[in-house]
Specification:
About 1% of the residues have low confidence. By secondary structure, the protein is α+β, with helices and mostly antiparallel strands. Helices cover 52% and strands 11% of the residues. The chain folds into 3 domains: 88 residues, no CATH class; 314 residues, no CATH class; 184 residues, no CATH class. β1 and β2 form a beta hairpin.
Length: 611
């Protein structure tokens, strides 16, 4: 019913000619599409405007390389015809997936895949360890079957079938949990500000990959125990009653190696999760330069152009060196109550007055970052500066006097460790079609939305008001990658830590069971509890130390891999690494504690009779 109706957009009557399918937001969370010809700020003569991104579909039979070659030729021709605006400007062809999921997002996804692989390897090492441990208990069974004529291949095949069946049953249970878990995770992350194209779903490709992984893990990690037990010495097994026919030293070496591998992978995964969580906490506590509570933000009109721009700075009396361009600074146009609304107190000087920005009142306020770069040893108030665009606009920029210095307020990239030098100018001096309003409220800012809409409607019923969010909501959306992916890293690391602890506990407990008679003999001969404790945990302690050393070496590598994702966090952050080492050690000691405690409480008489 809306087709053919006229709506006013930017005070221009616009006819609705189509409705896109539900969920269509291409390319970047869009709700409304207008012809480029309707955008006055994108006139052909403004070659210095480079805010347009071009999306297209390759014609059938045209390769990406051919398209890149043609665009390269176009860029070269434009550079030749318009050297002032197109020098060193190139055109690059990339897929939509590369455009939206490249760079840091791709690194995050690869890191998460690595985390999943680590958890899988730890779980498989656990199962392989338990199968190796059980091989000793099944040695007599295998010995009897071999003595009755069973071939080695039949023994291996049976054990592999058992391993694959175990992996399949576990996989079926895991897949069921994953379906509900992924749906829940996708639901709770809908409102964190993530792009519409990032969705967590389970489809046929995921199921096929899942099934292949289950089959391969069942075969690969069941093969070593199967080959080990198939080498059983029949005479030794039957002579010893099956208690020592599990492979002895060779089996213990395999078990020890798998435990060390588990512990190493766990520490590496804990390090990755620790770095991501530390970055999130750092970002959450980052001083933005203003008080974020009780602030409501909204936008007026549609964003045809930004209120800020990067311009060349000229300081009166300080010409740039010959042959060098003046430095770039960011210019922002703000109202006279801007700093009061944000709760920002100027470091020196004064705020804007209502008359600033009119003829003869060309003034500006700079931030402390600007002062540290261009006036490190003097007071900038009273100095005059000029902001010059890279491309001539037909009007000569005027000198403006610096009347104040503000704290460094993070305006754009909240996680940038080095905020830009900023020059604030009165909005009256640089009015733009796009304005962001910030309102400070005495109570909950979200309750003020209806009243603000009424105020704007009273001024102009056709004035579009959109993007209404509290400042805290806007910050939460800006931080969504750290919240979502940091939480996922933490979940995987917790699972890995639990799996390693369970594996260490199981192997230690099984070792106590296998050595019950030995412990009984030692206690009967006078061994004290501390000696029994050390007997039980010394091998686990050695594995723990080795795993800790190898894991810490891997943690340094993970830190460097995630360097580009970390916010003011060193990839060698000592607090994170020490915390991980302490947590890992405590959990590992707790895993070994209960089997060792049980060993110290054995009755020597019953232990000697244990079979």
């Amino acid at each position: 019913s809306i087709i053919g109706r006229t709506v006013r957009i930017n005070d221009v009557p616009t006819t609705v000619v189509g409705v896109m399918p539900e969920g269509m937001k291409f390319p970047f969370n869009a709700d409304l599409w207008l012809p480029l010809s309707n955008m006055p700020n994108l006139a052909a003569q403004k070659r210095n405007q480079r805010s347009v991104q071009l999306f297209g579909r390759l014609t059938e039979g045209v390769t990406r390389e051919r398209a890149q070659s043609e665009l390269k030729a176009i860029a070269a021709r434009l550079e030749h015809d318009f050297p002032d605006t197109n020098k060193d400007i190139s055109l690059t062809v990339m897929t939509f997936n590369e455009r939206v999921n490249g760079g840091p997002i791709r690194l995050v996804f690869l890191s998460l895949m690595g985390a999943v692989a680590f958890v899988l390897l730890i779980a498989c090492a656990n199962v392989a360890n338990l199968l190796l441990a059980r091989s000793a208990a099944r040695a007599r069974e295998v010995g009897v079957r071999v003595s009755l004529g069973a071939t080695r291949w039949r023994i291996v095949r049976q054990l592999l079938v058992e391993s694959v069946l175990l992996a399949s049953l576990s996989g079926a249970l895991g897949f069921g949990l994953a379906v509900f878990g992924v749906r829940w995770f996708d639901a709770v992350t809908q409102d964190v500000g993530k792009p519409y194209w990032i969705r967590f779903t389970m489809d046929g490709r995921v199921f096929a990959f899942f099934a292949a992984v289950c089959l391969l893990t069942g075969i690969i990690f069941g093969l070593a125990p199967a080959l080990h037990i198939s080498k059983t010495d029949i005479n030794e097994v039957l002579k010893e009653g099956g208690r020592t026919g599990g492979g002895g030293i060779r089996a213990r070496r395999w078990t020890g190696a798998l435990i060390v591998a588990e512990l190493t992978l766990t520490i590496v995964l804990l390090a990755g999760a620790g770095f991501m969580m530390r970055s999130f906490l750092t970002l959450y506590r980052l001083d933005l330069g203003f008080e974020t509570s009780h602030l409501l933000t909204m936008a007026l009109q549609l964003p045809e152009m930004m209120g800020g721009a990067a311009l060349r700075l000229t300081i009166e009396g300080r010409p740039p060196p010959t042959g060098e361009l003046p430095p770039q600074v960011t210019r922002l146009a703000v109202g006279p109550r801007y700093f009061d609304t944000l709760g920002v107190r100027l470091v020196r000087g004064r705020a804007f007055a209502d008359t600033d920005g009119t003829a003869g009142h060309d003034v500006g306020i700079v931030n402390q970052r600007f002062v540290s770069m261009y006036f490190p040893n003097e007071d900038p108030v009273g100095h005059r500066i000029k902001l010059v665009p890279d491309v001539a606009t037909g009007t000569e920029p005027t000198w403006m006097s610096i009347v104040g210095v503000s704290p460094t307020v993070r305006q754009r990239n909240f996680q940038d460790p080095d905020p830009d030098p900023v020059v604030y100018v009165p909005y009256r001096a640089m009015p733009t079609p796009f304005m962001t309003l910030i309102v400070r409220t005495p109570g909950d800012p979200s309750t003020m939305t209806p009243a603000l809409r009424e105020e704007v409607r009273a001024l102009d019923p056709d004035l579009p008001l959109f993007g209404i969010r509290t400042m805290d909501e806007m910050l939460a959306q800006a931080r969504w990658p750290f919240r979502v992916f940091g939480s996922m890293f933490a979940i995987f690391a917790t699972i890995a830590l639990l799996l390693s602890a369970i594996g260490l506990y199981a192997i230690t407990a099984y070792s106590v069971t296998q050595r019950t008679q030995e412990i009984g003999v030692r206690m009967a001969l006078g061994a004290q509890q501390p000696q029994v404790w050390w007997l039980v945990i010394r091998r686990s302690f050695a594995q723990l130390v080795l795993g800790l050393l190898l894991g810490m070496a891997g943690a340094f590598g993970v830190g460097r891999l995630l360097r580009s994702l970390l916010v003011q966090t060193s990839p060698n952050d000592p607090l994170t690494l020490v915390s991980i080492a302490v947590l890992f050690t405590l959990v590992s000691i707790a895993a070994c504690f209960w089997p060792a405690r049980r060993a110290t409480r054995l009755d020597p008489v019953r232990a000697l009779r244990y079979e």
